[in-house]
Amino acid sequence: MLEADRNGPQKGNTNRIFPYEQTHHLIPIPLDKLVVRGGNFLEGSLTVSGSKNTALPLMAGAVVANGVSVIENVPALRDIDTFSRVIDVTGARVSIDRESHRLVVDASSVENAEAPYELVKRMRASFYMLGALLARMGHARVSLPGGCAWGPRPVDLHIEGVKAFGADVELDRGYVVAKARGGRLSGGNFKLTPSSVGATVNLMLAASTAAGGSRIENAAREPDVVVFGEALRKMGARIEGLGTPTIEIEGVEGLESATVTNCADRIELGTFMIAAAIAGRPGEPVTILGAQPDHLGQAFVDAFVETGTGLTSDEDGTVHVVAPEELKPVSIATGIYPGFPTDLQAQWTVLLSQGRGNAKVVDTIYSDRFKHIAELRRMGMNAIVLGNEVVVEGGVPLTGAQVMSTDLRASVSLVLAGLVASGETHVLRVYHLDRGYENLEGKLSDAGIDIERVRYDEFADPVAEATT
User: Fold this and answer.
1) pTM value?
2) Could you point out which of 44, 207, 227, 349 has its C-alpha 20 to 30 Å from the C-alpha of 196?
């Protein structure tokens, strides 16, 4: 062995390269991946879980309500667990029965008006605690959020809104510190520009116990907001205009606990519909249970039917999807509800790859939500990103590959691609997926797909493994 090898790098030798075995001391990081073996038809039935995007506001509302509230149809997801821990910090107590999908919040002893960085950084929806704690305690100290690693999604609207409703707000080392003048918000008017689901929810929470009336203009009209508002009404809130651009709230002294039911997840429904369209056996229906198809918005339904896919629904909300012999390429542009959901554009990109001809996806909500395209190109997809749109050439066969999740909806698009790709697709870092899809691999497996969850080492060296 050379002297330099025995004694380490020589002083001043900045270009010294060591044998691999001397520097390979990375700590193993065990993570889960999904392994999908393509070529199997999706058949039978799939069941839609409760809505994540509605369950989280319902949980925040339960913090405002004094007493024990029960929320039915709550999905077993990582985000639900994270928000439960955020609520626990306030002194409220959360218990979850995963089998019955029932969540109980005992908010009898809320005494801490802080939502710490260590928890809020994991999920943007934790910022709902700003409105909830202002409504319950008259003050709040909430960390600025983290969340999905794409696109600018500032909380300025939330902050300016509570200011308009009577809160004094300052930033303190990464925290938003808000205090209601006189211990209770006065109420007021605020116009959301642009419309925002998160800000609408936060302002509804804050205004629910204000001393006077409040108006939210250009409010979000999504079903998530409507179901949440109806739950607040059941807790005693006085709210008018749900489902319209103007929501008016007359503050009450306080909210009371109640039992409320979460709605079905419309984004999971749309994902399953796309899965059935691309991987179903042509001419044979795939049944989707527990759905609320009226929550999808007409833009998605119209585009879906235009692809040539059969779509019917029963009075109980059960949806039947029949894959066509050949999908027609249909370009879409996302928009605020009832426009095409931005949370379904990544999945739609995969659908476009299975048609014949070119089509595009334009995202008018977020300009930087195409990180999944680079991963889909690894599988053979011919797609080009141009600003806030992606152009897809359909009819190019996909091949299984190792691909990496970058956010929640991107991760499920990679799974969908794996359904129709030849060979094995390994979707890494599915902790993103676990934030919003309950037992996806179990549901797909029960419907004929060859898919399994496997533990892997993020830092394992494939060359070293191949030689052992």
Assistant:
1) 0.91
2) 349
